[in-house]
Amino acid sequence: MAAQFTPRVFSGIKPSGGLTLGNYLGAIKRWVAMQGPEFETVYCVVDLHAITVWQDPADLRASTHEVAAALLASGIDPKTSILFNQSQVSVHAELGWIFNCIARVGWMNRMTQFKDKAGKNAEKVSLGLYAYPSLMAADILAYHATHVPVGEDQKQHVELTRDIAAKFNHDYKVDFFPLTEPVIEGPATRVMNLRDGTKKMSKSGESDMERINMLDDADTIAKKFRKARTDPDPLPGELEGLKDRPEARNLVDIYAGLSDQSPEAVLAEFAGAGWGRFKPALAELAVAKLAPISEEMRRLMADPGELDALLGKGAEKAEAISRPILQQVHDIVGFVRSRS
Ligand code: TYM
Fold this sequence. Notes:
Blueprint: E1 8-13, H1 21-34, E2 40-45, H2 47-50, H3 57-74, E3 81-85, H4 91-100, H5 105-109, H6 112-118, H7 127-141, E4 147-149, H8 155-171, E5 181-183, H9 218-226, H10 246-259, H11 263-270, H12 275-301, H13 304-333
Parallel strand pairs: 1-2, 2-3, 4-5
Helix pairs in contact: 3-12, 4-7, 4-13, 7-8, 9-12, 10-11, 10-12
Ligand 1 binds next to strand 1, helix 1 and helix 7.
């Protein structure tokens, strides 16, 4: 009989540079929505992942605090959810090593995000960047997580996590790890760059005008939407009319994500509207949603000691779940418990 697993959510976000509207709509807002009686929720600031590319130590500390503050300000409740930073629970790195010995080089070679990030420079990037998906599998499986809410760009990594779980279970003839489900939901699972609707909005894009940062002020948000690339046509009444109009589709999806509506409902409201009407409405909505969050983020970031205490408590709770799972892995693999 298949093992039963507690319904448990795990997800992570890298503290590497500022957070964007893509992180908020694709992940953070979904994480908040999954808190409740149905799931145990475990959320992690994945600092070990951040250093796969160079991070200035002071910037890394500041980003860790920024991400923690953003999660709390957006509605992650530390009484309901476990919130911590990854480096404080060494189980992640330890299980990550074991998974490096389960995952196959051929699987890693197929990871599109590695290919995109490494580009022509594949010989010069860190070994950590290449092995990163097996650490991500360890993050998830150290908690026997059953559900992982992420944006579209992480789908392949969650599928790899399933492959690693399945191979571990098969090789050791156990039914130990769950086959985790990616949860990629809502209208904004892939928020695109404001200057090029074929590219993802990311923290590392060249120009700041490409993205909305969670800490942008109202004027900056309005300016970025005003200058966002679009086409000359008005908005259609049906989704079909946005086919081959990636920039227009993106702005409609952002509006839908921020207002908790479907893109169809947004079009029903704005059918026939030109950008002169839609863009200011979008900017106003974004400011209404983001301003209270950024204000609370600033308040929280002013007291890093308080954030550290909170993350530390979360790390203890995270350790209490994941350490016994790692110990079982040690037994399954055949490591001798010579210290206990
Ligand atoms: P990261 O830090 O790049 O992004 C964090 C989350 O934000 C989502 N996201 C987006 N969603 C929609 N549109 C966008 N433009 C956009 N940009 C980012 C990402 O999909 C992600 O959900 N490898 C992960 C972090 C990670 C993780 C994990 C996630 C480490 N361990 C375990 C889940 C489970 C990453 O680099 O995300």
